[in-house]
Amino acid sequence: MCGIVGYIGTKRACPILLAGLSRLEYRGYDSAGISTIEKDGLSLVKDKGRVKVLEDKPEINSLKGTIGIAHTRWATHGKPSKENSHPHQDNHKIFSVVHNGIIENFQELRSMLEKNGYNFLSQTDTEIIPNLIHYYYEKEHENTVHAFLKAVRNCCLDLKGSFAIEVISKLFPKNMIVVRKDSPLVIGTCEDEKYLSSDIPAILSYTRDFYFLNDLEFALLENTCVKFYNVNLEEIDKPSSSIEWNAAASEKNGYEDFMLKEIYEQPTAIRETIGSKISLDNKCDFEELRFTKSYLETIDKIYIVACGTAMHAGLAGKNVIEKLCRIPVEVDIASEFRYRNPILNEKILCIFISQSGETADTIAALKLAKRCGSKTIALTNVIGSSITREADYSMYTHAGPEIAVASTKAYTSQVLLVNMLAVYFAEILGNTDVSEISNIKQEMLNLPKKIEETFSCKDAIQEFAKKIYQEKDVFFLGRGIDETVAKEGALKLKEISYIHSESYPAGELKHGPISLIENGITVISILTDSALMEKTISNIQEVISRGAKTLVITSHACDPSMFDETIQIPDTITYLSPILSIIPLQLLAYYISKEKGLDVDKPRNLAKSVTVE
Ligand code: F6R
């Protein structure tokens, strides 16, 4: 949802900013722009299109400045166009600004500024920001960096909504000011260089040391130092954090696309997420949680709240918590949860799953739960992300950076982590059979090897993709936990192949959707739960007899002549089965998208990390 980068240092800023934008392009890719501080004032180069369009502009080569800001856009206010691209400047070209987020009261502020003689060239909400900074700067009686900081602060106090903002000014050629509220922004620090970015991977090749701003904290940067201020402009101390991800993790490393690389990284992601927390000899230990038996016994209900794929991981994890802990679990979509007046109190525990840790609806739902007295756990992949600063407790998947818009390794790591949490709670509560817990742990430890084995389906899946890539509709079926995987399989396919895909609980089919089944339509079924297998096979027979083409993903012995294609995957316990059964479906979505010649990593209309409502 828009990517912003910034650089303040000793080298030419432009190539560093362009490299950062390319790495952030997965956050938005309808236009891109850059502004640097040059000897004769602020430069501004921007246009509709991808970062490549910007790179190819001749003016780019003349930018020599060592301080600059840049932006890649995912349009919210105003269509993709040169005028609407960032950076934006005030009418006097004194301030350049890039912004990620949404200014909800921009119309009101724009009218106020228009009354005060300001003109607007774009339809964006962002263009009010440099003008508002100018408006406040004019009211200051001194030309000092502090006056600049005060003008930015006063501007931010007027803004309603979410924002991560970088500001440079031709009046202060050694400085940059950045601030965030409900939108991501990290500051990477080296001795005489500072790097800014919407996320860590984009600048990992320069530094592992990062500062994370809280809402409405301001950073005033020079190349050799950063000063932090609270909203009252009192200087505050901020420790830096060292990030363990390595830079290679954010590169394609020989893979054609990030999505394919991330699919193949799943054994490692699972191994890293297990870490040393799961062993057969010791109890599962999440030292970051420190929950007691007496607290767990007071819980009436657990909500798992998330969006998209992360919500599907919650659905896949519901049953294991209920079975092992005997606590009811409800899984909710964050954008619904936050507006439906859910019953929340201190006896409710809320778990929020978010790969990025920046999803606006999930964070808002978490804040609501906290306000109502419920304990909150953030389950995320990104250390220092906004959600970790809001939640009472944070726990991490260790999947490494996920760059492709379509989530793959984050999903399987999330399903695993929810299972690990269930085991952790169950061991504290002490009311589950020890051998059942040992069996789950053993199967967790077996997962990386079983995922490797699952990859052997690749050729068959690729062939099947060739057969169905021109289809208009595809159906996914399953029962129980397999139905949650059907949901995720359908989402993956529609996201990156633009094929209309729907998932249904297999038993629901004849209550309506079966009327959509006609000759030649593709129906994909997941069959891993042996207790439900026969029932699902009967439902598949019903669609076969109406002419459907069938692909079955199963971990059990099946007569392959029954279906058009059968993909055999390793068996595991039901709770962990989504971690294996989703893999053929991820590969299928990938190869269909490739057959169609689409941009797998950057599907249309989508962006990684949905930081707006
Ligand atoms: C789908 C996908 C999205 C995200 C959703 C939540 O492949 O990636 O559905 O799962 O936008 O994102 P996070 O997990 O970052 O909160």
Keyword list:
about 625 residues, Glutamine Phosphoribosylpyrophosphate, subunit 1, domain 1, Rossmann fold, 3 domains, nine-stranded antiparallel beta sheet, seven-stranded antiparallel beta sheet, 18 helices, 26 strands
CATH arch. level architecture of the largest domain? 4-Layer Sandwich
Query: Mean pLDDT, rounded to whole units?
Result: 93
Structural class: alpha/beta
Overall CATH class of the largest domain: Alpha Beta
Total domain modules:
3
Specify Rg, calculated over alpha carbons: 25 Å
State the helical fraction: 25-40%
Structure ligands: fructose -6-phosphate
Description:
The chain has 613 residues and is α/β, with parallel strands linked by helices. It has 3 domains: 3-243, Aminohydrolase, N-terminal nucleophile (Ntn) domain (Glutamine Phosphoribosylpyrophosphate, subunit 1, domain 1); 250-432, Rossmann fold (3-Layer(aba) Sandwich); 456-595, Glucose-6-phosphate isomerase like protein, domain 1 (Rossmann fold). 35% of the residues lie in helices and 22% in strands. Strands 1, 2, 3, 4, 5, 10, 11, 12 and 16 form a 9-stranded antiparallel beta sheet that branches. Strand 13 (217-221) and strand 14 form a beta hairpin. The radius of gyration is 25 Å and the shape is globular. The protein starts with a strand and ends in an 18-residue tail after the last helix. Fructose -6-phosphate binds next to helix 9 and helix 16.
